[in-house]
Specification:
The complex is a heterotrimer.
Chain A: H1 2-30, H2 46-55, H3 64-76, H4 89-124, H5 129-143, H6 146-164, H7 183-221, H8 224-231, H9 236-274, H10 279-288, H11 292-320
Chain B: H1 2-14, E1 41-50, E2 57-67, E3 72-76, H2 83-91, E4 98-106, E5 109-110, H3 116-122, E6 127-130, H4 144-155, H5 160-173, H6 179-182, H7 192-203, E7 210-214, H8 222-239, E8 242-247, H9 250-256, E9 259-264, E10 267-273, H10 274-279, H11 284-292, E11 342-343, E12 350-351, H12 356-362, H13 366-369, H14 371-384, E13 396-411, E14 417-433, E15 437-441, H15 448-457, E16 463-468, E17 471-472, H16 478-487, E18 488-491, H17 505-515, H18 522-531, H19 548-560, E19 566-570, H20 578-595, E20 598-603, H21 606-612, E21 615-620, E22 623-629, H22 630-635, H23 640-648, H24 654-659, H25 686-690, H26 693-701, E23 707-710, E24 713-715, H27 720-725
Parallel strand pairs in B: 3-8, 3-9, 6-7, 7-8, 15-20, 15-21, 18-19, 19-20
Antiparallel strand pairs in B: 1-2, 1-4, 4-5, 9-10, 10-12, 11-12, 13-14, 13-16, 16-17, 21-22, 22-24, 23-24
Chain C: H1 3-18, H2 23-33, H3 35-53, H4 89-125, H5 127-142, H6 145-151, H7 161-170, H8 174-188, H9 191-199, H10 203-211, H11 216-239, H12 251-261, H13 267-294
Classes of the chains: A mainly alpha, B alpha/beta, C mainly alpha.
């Protein structure tokens, strides 16, 4: 048992190492940090640029494999290298991960809980008004990419604020810098900032989950054990909530691992558009600034997150389903 | 797993009879009243239609019956006859797109169209139900005890602790050993038989007046079936409820029911007391059913009379009698209008046939009505009679010697680990000589399918040896293997699953020919279709366009395409209805005689095996219990397991059923991952229990090998002689 | 051809004529009977018509700039208005739609084909084939696709969009491949596959003649839904400037530009955003009703 777990974790570690290395190689060969120093006025002497790049281990004149070894050697000691600006990648990401995790956690909870509830209710009332409405809505939401949705939300918020004549919905950043007032004021300000990004992130998730949960629920509704439960004398409602929903939750939880990757991408867009200084925003910026070390570090973070999500969904599955629990 | 075994062990020491000593008495009611009571359940003019408009399917038409307290009514019919739908209508559990008319009265109260609240009050309390598939009837995520306690608490105002105690009592009543502990188990930790017991416990939790059992034993092995039927009898004794048992098995009905109702195409076609219907049959369909079942107590001499054709689609019923197209004694009047059930003979016996009067007056027997074909099949038997050479002189087609197949047992998905070794096949030997049929029988988990797959793989076995047509699989080159594949073919159980749904029949039959380098496949395909009784024009259709029996014929044709010498038959008729099964069995017989084939037949239905096998091998837990000439094994079984197995098979003969002594085996099959030491059967063996302590040690310590007890008859039991003397 | 065979061919042909309509026709019939399927198909047909025939209706090309009208609202001259650069919104939007459709369709087909082959081989052969293919699948799942695509974006400049399609497809197949693999494992145990195996049919032939055709419904549905996934990925990448490179345009780059001016020049944002939403919606509707059409027993459509 411990052996199996150990082998699995080892496999995860290998996957992360390979994925991160691959990302590094790709980034190091495709991105061009030297271009950051071009077109400056006054022009920077090539020797200075070279020295600076070598110092950051970003010099494209050093062979790729040599740069990789330097980078990997530092990484083995927990050092992700330095950004193009010279700061520590590790410190920078450490600051940003908190922001991203806050956004993801809230978005995930709101999205999945809403989705599961909506889907389950729609399945119970199959072909009813609620089912039709929620199905239509989820189709529309699924057709709107996050980048468009976020922009639509911003436009709507601006119009809304104009209409009520006050800045209710805030569309930029995580908090208002230099805000005066006590704890309550800060809290409200945070919520005002959080509202739209959460919506942008969780709407799509809710739509996916509601479709999935509805299908799972319909599968379970036709199962023999629901018939048994009703043959016992349970009312339809009791049979559905106690037996059907509980059983149909299991696949929804395992589905979580599959959606997590998409969630990370969604977070990237949301952060960038709403100006949250999280990892996602850094991802987009690092490519624009040819920041190879940051790109590699973010890849490592993403790989770790996806694998942790897979592990978490397996654990949840085991908790929910006695059939896979270790006996 | 460990707890299950200790539970079994304890129950063996502590228990004597059908149910546990610790059970609190259920409120007893008079089992049988002297005066006929009012019916508890009365169904009249029940019509059930699915969908609307031209595509509507009339599943049930004019169904009616009544059951009185303590009475057992058997409803018999083939798949699609509407028998299960009727019981769902009684429970009010039909899906919303079903339109139901007529009347269903429970204790005099109409429940068709009653509001949900009335229905929930009735369900589980007045009428309860046992479903067919015990695997899916319990919610997988809740403990068994909790699910039974829930059933109790729906109708009784008692506390959780009290309900839990009651659940344990009920589990004990239905014969679950160590009930208090097993109540905490999840459904997947129960075997099929135990789950069905749990479902029965749930059904009797509120002391109902009627228990509807929908194919309650179809998914179970025959020895477990005998146990479950016994539990149902106990349940009936304890509650005094009426039972409606729905089944396709005429044997189960013969021994269990008081009255029987035969359904065909959604209608009752014959009703009456069991003896009346079985011995004085007045409807040709019922006669056909009774004539087409192979019987355990008769060998090959019994001619099987198949009913030609297949049941009509409920979406396109003929205007007249629905059985008319298949009826051997149909007259023009039959096609005009559908006959109503009329009284024939003694009171309560009704039959829906315009010629039932004639049948009654002339006293026609099934054999007379289906006479023509019966004669034809006896002629076949006569041809086969000239079997010239004795067994020893014929070529060895297949030899299996000490075959072993173990595979690892793992547990858990998150923390997968190996928890043991499943000893699926553990030293099995048998052989087949040219022109003979060996039947490999046993219950699920005995290793018969694993044995068959090992043979078909043609790979080197883990232990022992397999020699097919003179080639040892362990020393086979790729070319040899290909050659042997040509000479050994297989027919699978489920005809639909074994034919690729995306290919036409032509392509299906051509595939083996092309795989072995055939070019001109057209004529051969036509020939094959003719050989199995299909038309050449069928070649362009897809498997889905055929009925079950026809599909199995296609499967057989494919197996014969390369003119094999050995055909492996894996449960070839178990997916078919009885009336169709007979035709396929006759075809297999005929082809064997004509083409000089050898068959290895794997089946769980002992009657089918008796009908076509020359020799039989009975398997138990990965070993052979008894092997030998079929008549010897069936008529004078020497192994206690074979005896129990044969006694558990119900016969379609009410008088014989009532007089038979059934050897009930206790408990379930032990896990093949941890078989008992010594003799594997000793934990359930009635003979073992009757031995004294000193003698028993041999069973515990020494694993019995197959011993020859006579000419071509071997038994793996240390004390087989004692059984014979008994 | 022998006479008997000729006869048979004849017979087959005649039976073919009277036999039930082909599977394709049945599925299409069901698709068009469902309201959702009909809406989706009609919408999709209109979008294709607009994207491929629409540009011929106007004299403006997507590269042309009208220096007399910057950020002009819709008029008879510029039906959907103009951008800040003076480009005609109608012309550039249709050009972008065409690009998105082509990229989406190709990437989906390539991705699904890859998924089918990898999944079927992994599932059918098991052991080390399975382990190594599954490992590669896992690796690609773990790699952040968006990031890799973004890094490689310079390679797609200068009309190298087919390269973009290939890389996009490379990140579309993993989940489907896992489904195909587990379906293959269960199909492998099915009796008709075993029958073929025991008859001596070689493994690759079994995969291509039995296994993949028997998953065609899943694959068709998946390919359809992959079209929308590919379009969404493409537009998102292009939004951040990592996808289709200028001077070519895509809906994503148009939306990115339009979002800047959306508040005071709504036509720059809503036409391209709306067309994108309708396209994806139509593809999803078709995909979802195709699933129902292939499997009429699962009564899921609402």
């Amino acid at each position: 048992m411990a052996g199996f777990l150990a082998r699995r974790l080892l496999n995860y570690l290998v996957l992360i190492v390979v994925a991160t290395s691959l990302a590094y190689m790709l980034a190091a060969s495709a991105l061009d940090p030297r271009s950051n120093y071009e077109g400056r006025n006054p022009p920077i002497p090539p020797a200075v640029v070279d020295a600076r790049l070598t110092d950051l281990n970003l010099n494209d004149r050093t062979p790729l494999f040599e740069r990789y070894l330097t980078w990997a050697g530092a990484l083995a000691h927990g050092d992700f290298g330095r950004t193009v600006a010279g700061g520590s990648v590790g410190d920078d990401l450490g600051r940003r991960i908190g922001v991203t995790l806050r956004l993801i956690t809230v978005g995930l909870l709101v999205g999945s809980v809403t989705g599961v509830l909506v889907g389950a209710y729609a399945a119970v009332k199959q072909y009813g008004a609620f089912d039709r409405l929620s199905t239509a809505l989820s189709f529309v939401v699924l057709a709107v990419p996050t980048v468009v949705l976020a922009n639509i939300l911003i436009i709507a918020a601006v119009r809304f604020n104009e209409a009520v004549g006050a800045q209710i919905l805030l569309v930029s950043g995580e908090a208002t810098p230099g805000l005066q007032g006590g704890f309550a004021a800060a809290g409200i300000d945070r919520i005002q900032h959080l509202l739209l990004p959460t919506l942008s992130l969780s709407l799509g998730l809710a739509a996916v989950y509601s479709r999935y949960q509805r299908n799972m629920m319909l599968d379970v509704l036709g199962a023999d054990f629901i018939r048994t439960a009703m043959a016992k004398g349970l009312s339809r409602r009791a049979a559905l909530t106690r037996h059907a929903l509980r059983t149909a939750l299991i696949p929804a939880v395992t589905y979580f691992a599959f959606t997590f990757g998409a969630l990370l991408v969604g977070t990237t867009f949301t952060e960038k558009i709403f100006g949250w200084h999280g990892v996602g925003e850094q991802l987009v910026d690092s490519i624009s600034t040819n920041d190879i070390n940051t790109v590699a570090a973010i890849s490592c973070f993403a790989a770790l997150a996806v694998l942790l999500a897979a592990l978490a969904s397996d654990v949840l599955h085991a908790v929910l389903d006695p059939r896979v629990r270790v006996g | 797993m460990t707890s299950e075994r200790t539970a079994d062990a304890r129950s063996r020491n502590g228990r004597t009879g059908g149910h546990g000593s610790g059970a609190a008495p259920l409120p007893l009611r008079a089992g049988s009243d002297p005066v006929p009571a009012d019916p508890v359940l009365e169904v009249r003019d029940l019509d059930i239609t699915f969908g609307r408009g031209p595509g509507a399917v009339r599943a049930v038409r004019g169904m009616g019956y009544a059951v009185r307290p303590g009475e057992v009514l058997g409803i018999v019919g083939e798949s699609g006859s509407g028998k299960s739908v009727t019981s769902l209508a009684v429970m009010g559990l039909l899906p919303p797109h079903a339109h139901v008319t007529g009347s269903v009265r429970l204790r005099g109260q109409e429940i068709l169209g009653a509001p949900e609240r009335t229905l929930t009050a009735f369900r589980g309390r007045t009428v309860s139900m046992v479903f067919q598939d015990p695997l899916s009837a319990l919610t997988p995520v809740y403990r068994v005890g909790d699910q039974i306690a829930e059933a109790v608490r729906v109708h009784q105002r008692i506390g959780a602790a009290q309900a839990a105690r009651r659940a344990v009592e009920l589990l004990d009543l239905v014969g679950i050993p160590n009930a208090a502990q097993r109540a905490r188990a999840f459904p997947h930790e129960f075997s099929g038989g135990m789950r069905q017991r749990a479902v029965i416990a749930m059904a009797i939790a509120n002391d109902p007046d009627v228990i509807l059992c929908d194919e309650p034993t179809t998914a179970l092995d025959v020895t477990i079936q005998a146990q479950v039927l016994e539990v149902l009898k106990t349940a009936q004794r304890e509650t005094g409820a009426a039972i409606v048992i729905i089944t396709h098995d005429l044997g189960v009905v013969a021994g269990f029911a008081d009255r029987v109702l035969v359904m065909y195409a959604g209608r009752p076609v014959e009703v009456g007391s069991v003896d009346e219907v079985y011995y004085r049959t007045r409807m040709p369909y019922t006669m056909g059913l009774l004539g087409s079942i192979p019987r355990l107590d008769r060998g090959r001499e019994q001619p099987l009379v198949p009913i030609e054709g297949s049941p009509p689609s409920p979406a396109a019923l003929p205007p007249g009698c629905p059985f008319e197209p298949r009826c051997p004694i149909a007259v023009p009047a039959c096609a005009e209008s559908e006959p109503e059930p009329v009284r024939v003979g003694s009171p309560g016996h009704l039959a829906a046939c315009v010629r039932s009067g004639e049948i009654e007056a002339e006293g026609w027997s099934p054999a007379q009505i289906y006479g023509m074909r019966a004669v034809a099949s006896t002629a076949d038997t006569a041809v086969r009679g000239e079997r010239p050479r004795p067994r020893g002189e014929r070529d060895l087609v297949l030899a299996v010697d000490g075959l072993v197949k173990h595979y690892p047992l793992t547990k858990g998905t998150l923390l997968r680990r190996r928890v043991g070794t499943v000893r699926a096949v553990d030293g099995v030997s048998f052989d087949i000589r040219e022109g003979e049929t060996l039947g490999l029988v046993g219950e699920s988990g005995c290793g018969k399918t694993t044995t068959l797959m090992e043979i078909l793989e043609l790979a080197a076995p883990q232990g022992g040896g397999i020699t097919v047509l003179g080639h040892d699989t362990a020393r086979m080159s790729a070319r040899d293997r290909m050659a042997v594949r040509r000479d050994m073919q297989v027919v699978f159980q489920d005809p639909l699953a074994s034919l690729d749904p995306r290919m036409t029949v032509h392509d299906i039959l051509a595939e083996p020919l092309r795989a072995h380098g055939g070019r001109e496949v057209g004529p051969r395909v036509r020939e094959l279709l003719g050989m199995v009784g299909l038309e050449a024009g069928h070649a362009a259709r897809y498997p889905q366009d055929f009925s079950g029996g026809q599909r199995q014929r296609i499967g057989i044709a494919r197996a014969l395409a390369l003119e094999p010498r050995l055909v492996v038959l894996d449960e070839p008729v178990s997916a078919l209805d009885v009336s169709i099964q007979a035709g396929v069995l006759n075809l297999l017989e005929e082809l064997r005689t004509r083409l000089g084939l050898s068959y290895l037949l794997v089946a769980h239905d002992l009657a089918v095996v008796r009908h076509i096998a020359d020799r039989v091998a009975v398997m138990y837990l990965g070993r052979i219990a008894e092997i030998g000439q079929a008549d010897r094994v069936y008529d004078a079984p020497m192994h206690p397991y074979t005896r129990a197995l044969l006694s558990a098979v119900p016969l379609p003969d009410p008088v014989m059923e009532r007089s038979r002594r059934r050897i009930l085996l206790e408990g379930d099959l032990p896990s093949p991952a941890d078989p008992p030491s010594g003799c594997r059967f000793r934990t359930r063996c009635p003979l073992f229990r009757s031995l004294d302590e000193a003698v028993r040690r041999r069973c515990v310590e020494e694993e019995p090998q197959v011993r020859r007890l006579g000419d071509d008859h071997g038994v793996s039991c240390h004390f087989a002689e004692r059984l014979g003397a008994e | 051809m022998t006479i008997a065979e000729e006869e048979l061919t004849e017979q087959r042909a005649s039976v073919d004529r009277i036999k039930a309509p082909s599977r394709l026709r049945v599925v299409m019939g069901r698709l068009l009977r469902s309201g959702r399927g009909r809406t989706g198909s009609v919408l999709l047909a209109l979008i294709f018509l607009l994207a491929f025939a629409g540009p011929y209706l106007t004299r403006w090309t997507y590269t042309a700039k009208d220096f007399t009208a910057f950020l002009a609202p819709p008029s008879t001259e510029h039906w959907w208005g103009t951008l800040q650069t003076g480009a005609d919104v109608y012309a550039v939007t249709l050009r972008g739609t065409r690009r998105s459709l082509v990229v989406g369709l190709l990437a989906a087909v390539v991705g699904t084909a890859l998924a089918a082959v990898v999944g079927a081989f992994a599932g059918y052969f098991g052991s080390w084939t399975d382990r190594s293919l599954t490992w590669v699948t896992d690796l690609l799942l773990v790699l952040p696709a968006f990031l890799i695509l973004a890094i490689m974006s310079p390679l797609f400049a200068g009309g190298q969009w087919p390269m973009f399609v290939l890389v996009l497809a490379l990140f579309l197949w993993m989940v489907t491949s896992k489904i195909v693999r587990s379906m293959t494992i269960s199909l492998r145990e099915r009796e008709f596959i075993q029958a073929a195996r025991f008859m001596g049919v070689p493994p690759t032939r079994i995969i291509f003649r039995h296994i993949i055709p028997n998953m065609s419904s899943l694959l068709v549905v998946d390919a359809t839904l992959n079209v929308s996934a590919a379009i969404l990925t493409e537009t998102s990448l292009s939004y951040f400037g990592f996808g289709i490179q200028p001077p070519d345009v895509s809906l994503g780059s148009l939306i990115a530009d339009g979002a800047q001016t959306a508040l005071y020049a709504p036509w720059t944002f809503w036409f391209c955003a709306g067309l994108l939403i309708v396209t994806v919606l139509a593809v999803n509707l078709v995909g979802d009703s195709l699933r129902d059409a292939f499997d009429p027993t699962a009564r899921r459509s609402g």
